[in-house]
Amino acid sequence: MRFALSAAFLLLAACNPGGEGLMEDEEVIVSPILTSEDAKDPATFAEPEVARVTHVALDLALDFKAKTVGGTATLDILAEPDADTVVLDSDGLRIAKVTDGEGHALPFTVGERVEGKGEPVTVKMGAARRIAVTYTSAPGAEALQWLAPQQTAGGKLPYLFSQGQPILNRSWIPTQDSPGIRQSWEARVTAPKPLTVVMSGLRVGEPADAGEGRRAFSFRMNKPVAPYLIAIAAGDLEFRALGPRTGVWTEPAMIDRAAKELEDTEAMVAAAEELYGPYRWGRYDMIVLPPSFPYGGMENPTLTFLTPTFLAGDKSLTGLVAHELAHSWSGNLVTNANWADSWLNEGITSYFENRIVEKVYGRKRAEQEAALSFASMEDAIGELGSDNMVTALHLPPDEAGPDAGESAIIYDKGASFMRTVEHIVGREKFDAWLRQWFDSHAFQPATSALLLEDMHANLVKGDAALEKKLALDAWVYEPGLPDNVARPEAAAFAGVDGAAQAYAQHGTLDAAAWGAWTTAERLRFLSRLPKKLTTAELAELDRTLGLSASGNNEILFAWLELALANRYQPAVPVAERFLASVGRTKFVRPLFEALMEQGSWGEPIARRIYGKTRSTYHSVTQGAVDKVVGWDG
Ligand code: BES
Ligand code: ZN
Hints:
The radius of gyration is 25 Å and the shape is globular. The strands form six sheets. Strands 6-9-4-3-12-15-14 form a seven-stranded mixed β-sheet, with no helix packed on it. Strands 17-18-19-21-20 form a five-stranded mixed β-sheet, covered by helices on one side. Strand 3 and strand 4 form a beta hairpin. Helix content is 36%, strand content 22%. The chain is built from 19 helices and 23 strands. By secondary structure, it is of the alpha+beta class. The structure holds ligand BES and zinc ion (ZN).
């Protein structure tokens, strides 16, 4: 039996745990957990087979002065009848007390800290199946970034946002922080006026006066979600509807630009539904955050979090939105049981993203983006070595920490796998299979083994010749690139690659051609330039193509990376401005790396800039760059 609890689903009608979040007639789904060896999560202290959290009810206050959140988390627990303890995850939480549902104190211990994992909190719950934890987060809680007014577009009010994935939420929520332990949740959060609080669940009612110049905001998520998907943001926020079930939150100064860039969102949701079935989360809203957000996007349910660096003015970087939206199926509906299988979230999503882009923006753009992704994968496998196990989709235990994995493998090789299967079995069959996968595993965790089992049962169906052609095990468990891989259409970049070759051979630069290219074509061109360039060549490139002045952050980043790797002094102030205004790890880390690789020229520049910018970065970005520049406080 794969599932603990013999029924695959337990439907508890309107049990309305811990608050008023649920409507009378709503059903709460309690998801099963997987108990197979490959589904175990070494990154949690929880013992879900003994006792697990099924619902979290938060009652919290945001304290912008102390930079803490505090209050109570009331947890509903599903446990073996004789179980009398439950183990939670914590990272620096200050726990004042734990009580049962009636307010009687329960004994608890906070265990020893394990680096990269936090501390276990073991509660002697006895016969209680609801416990309330009264706590405060630490001021340095890793999931949270508290921004000073100067770090916002408006410049007047503070701002807060969280980032839960992969295992940061234990720094502000005392629960079982593992993607295989799904939990429904509700929250009441107070914040000082005039700040607005938003969360990754549907809003309940209007904000209420909470006294002392504060307002209370209520939310609920009645679907069981992986706990890394509980997210919060608070700031000077305005909402703009984009369509009947889509909209965007951001600071007033950004709202027009954001709404314009995101105007295709409703069409994307429709495209996604046409591909792989109904959108099951009610609303699809987004929040465009301040530029210190450490990722491009984060698929928080009902409320995708986005970097403002994707705002290019021409919708050329909205593949990001397609990506986060696709996670509403791959990731949020069907979720990797542990971080060794994050390709199940990110790889399938990257494939799905491309299919949405094809439907909304057409085949040419989709093929070009797929070709860029393919090239990153090939480059990465070339660099890492095709016998290196980090190039396998499923990461073996010694490679599989929560932060492990190369994005060119997890995202790009994962997408390439899906595309290869699609090409072999045909689009119609493949789409029917993928839709079936989402439907039959909805609100459940999954592993690589489970996916392959499902492919065998519902796609291969005993066809030995097809089985051989697909090479499924090689794709998932072996390093390198299987030779059945579906390659991108050669035509995708034929013109651009010709232009890059002409530049390398004869130094010809065609400004008019560049002007007519798509963003993907420009990125391809920059990636195909010779790695070593002289100061004169760099100056000409910059002058002719207007690279330093590009309003497209992907292009600006690609240019700066190339320029710094060639010790191009005029790019330093441009890079410094960029690094002072943007905290997205994907941009920031490689630029510091490029500088550090230039020894006596770049190292002092990197240290000087980082000394000024470090405090403006989220802990995720700080952690990544600290390693690069050898920062030790
Ligand atoms: N879920 C990821 C972000 C993430 C991954 C956070 C792992 C923490 C750990 C998100 O969906 C993502 O992939 N973002 C990309 C977007 C891009 C691939 C379009 C990013 O941030 O760059
Ligand atoms: Zn993703």
